[in-house]
Amino acid sequence: MQHVASASLILQEYEHLLSNVGKAFSEIAPDGPETLFPEWHRRRDRMRETVDLITPASAELGLTRCVENFLCYVSDIITQVLTARPDLLKTQEQVTIEDVLEHESIEGFISWAAERRVAQLSFKGLEEIAQYVKKRFGLELHQEEADWLKLKRGVALRNLIVHRRGIIDQRFLYVTGEKDLIKGSTYKTTMRDYVRTAESSMKIIGEFDKEMALKFSIAQQDTEGEKWYSPGRWGPEGRRKREKLAETDCNETHAPHHNHARANEEMREAEADGT
Predict the structure, then answer these.
(1) In degrees, to the nearest 5, what angle opens at C-alpha 159 toward C-alphas 122 and 193?
(2) Model confidence pLDDT, tens digit, residues 37-80
(3) Quick one: 186 exposed, middle or buried, by C-beta within 10 A (0-12, 13-18, 19+)?
(4) Can you give the pTM of this predicted structure?
(5) Which residues pair with 186 in a beta bridge?
(6) Residue 64 backbone phi and psi in degrees, to 5
(7) Which of 105, 113, 59 is nearest to 89 (CA)?
(8) Per-residue pLDDT reduced to its tens digit, 67-122
């Protein structure tokens, strides 16, 4: 991701340089700087084509890893709580005597049962996981609906990338509710998709982890030292930015062709925020 962001920044600086050169030579090049320095501008066009080509793939990679890390966290925290509080495992579900005897202690069996329950849960959808968390732990997986909607869209896009090679299907149309998408066409993932998924997932994790730690007396995750973590994405200092994005989200629809200027802006945003 840093490599892609660097390429975008280099292109931005190169374009800025060409613009300034054009202004400096405007008097002797009335037809524009491209006629005076054609090779420089052809080089710029090739650089632009490269950045435009790699941006969707990079956004796909970032978004996919972001969603997978979110789901992994949810599995880990549920396993941790169920292991610490085996009474929460009580269900009518049956296990065989063989399953029990495979473990040397009751603690080992409890750990196995917790991991088994979480493994079953991992095949469920995001809404079913949220319902399980609410029913079993008495907590909401998310606090703000806007964050939840952005994350749900990110998860749906991740599933589309992983299972459908990005080809839009009826399920994706249903989840997103976006009228301008065409079934059978390939979705072009943008850096904006990635950044918003990262923002919502980090915010939801930060808030949920605190609630779980307080309620069940378990250690809160130490994320401050993680390279991927960006407190400005969900902490108080990021509130203004989130509110501004929320206003944009209210009336914004997905554009099928992601323009180059917007790609540069979003790439810089992702790099600056450490996502």
Answers:
(1) 120
(2) 778 778 888 888 877 888 888 889 989 998 988 988 888 888 88
(3) middle
(4) 0.68
(5) 167
(6) -65, -45
(7) 113
(8) 988 988 888 888 888 778 877 767 656 666 766 667 677 677 777 777 777 677 76
DSSP 46-108: HHHHHHHHHHHHHHHHHHHHHHHHHHHHHHHHHHHHHHH-GGGG--S----HHHHHTSSSHHH
- Tell whether the torsion through CA atoms of 68, 69, 71 and 76 is positive or negative: positive
Q: In whole angstroms, how large is the CA radius of gyration of the chain?
A: 24
The token duo for 112 is 């196995």
Residue of 135, 155, 134 lying closest to 143 (CA atoms): 134
pLDDT of residue 109: 72
Crossing angle of helices 106-122 and 126-137, rounded to 10°: 140
